[in-house]
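pinging the channel bc i need a second pair of eyes. not urgent but kinda urgent?? the chain im working w is below, pasted from the shared doc
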Amino acid sequence: MNTRETGAQKEEQVCAYLLSEGIRIQERNFRCRQGEIDIVGYDGDCLVFFEVKYRRNGRAGSAADAVGYAKQRKICRVADYYRMIHHLKEDTPMRFDVVAIDAEKLQWIKNAFCYVER
């Protein structure tokens, strides 16, 4: 299985998990010129942007550590564009979560990072 197939399989696993936790998934792999967000959904009234990261082993660090400042900025820019094209209000509650999979251990990190200004 190549990296792309593994990533798609892990995202599928995460979607099933999030659905079982009550998340209403709106979109998967939302892409625009600014970048991509793996999963967009609602947790109650809160709009959540999910980044999914997988690491087969710890040699390259943990999966959660792979979401550094530059990636956070990119996700925030894509989130801004998502909110704009869906005509969502500025005061729409939102958060940025990371779902990290290290080997086969899944960890959902709510509020993994704060909104990063441009």
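so The mean pLDDT is 91. and The beta strands are 24-32, 35-43, 46-55, 94-102, 105-113. — does that match what u expected or am i reading it wrong
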